[in-house]
Amino acid sequence: MSSVNEAIVREYFEALGYFVTQPGNHPSPGRFPRSGPEADIDLLILHPLVTEPRIPSHMFWTTEDFGGVARALVSISGKHTGRLYKSTIDATPDLLRFAESAARRAAAERTGAGATAAVLCLPQLPAAGDLREKALHALRDHGVDGVVSFHTMLTDLIGRVQLGHNYEQSDVLQTIRILKTYGFLRGSQMELFAKPSREQTRRKNAANPPAPPQVQE
Fold first, then answer.
1. Over residues 171-187, mean pLDDT
2. In the chain, what are the domain boundaries?
3. pLDDT reading at 204 higher than 80
4. Per-residue model confidence as pLDDT tens digits over 60-104
5. Cβ(177)–Cβ(167) under 8 Å?
6. Which pLDDT tens digit goes with each residue over 139-160?
7. How many whole angstroms from its chain centre is CA 173?
């Protein structure tokens, strides 16, 4: 797991109010590396203010879907070079080991009893509806409760970052702030009013040519 991917995911969940810990991948100095089920969990998240926990029934989650998720095991798939197909899921069982019962029991020892979701953070799912549904069904069959994309997480973080605030304690947020300052990123609200480029206008006109003038008799 790339440290950059991990940093993005951590910043996202902390922005939503979660306490975030790493149970197994990076032990503290002077301790023996952890093994067993804990080593399969990238992050554990716990929201202390969620009093009525609920896990969404659908698989593809947005930021709003985390409003009722009190605790979760998180696995991070950070290969930003392709989509996650059913064939990939079947060929990489280690990716989903975090959702097995042994890992859930290990998480419960740290976060306490209660509804605990197994959440997979991934770059992209197949675009086609059929292939997308097959991938989601395969994930559910392996015990995953929900998936959240890097697009969702980055969009949320970009929208939260303010130009007048200094984020020296976070490389991810400070980088986003710098990119926004120099116009490389626009918030979702700004995009609604952004002036289209010449290339965008050309493509739009090419796709919707004007109707030929009507000849009056």
1. 90
2. 3-160, 171-205
3. no
4. 999 999 999 999 999 999 888 889 999 999 888 888 999 999 999
5. yes
6. 999 999 999 999 999 999 999 9
7. 16
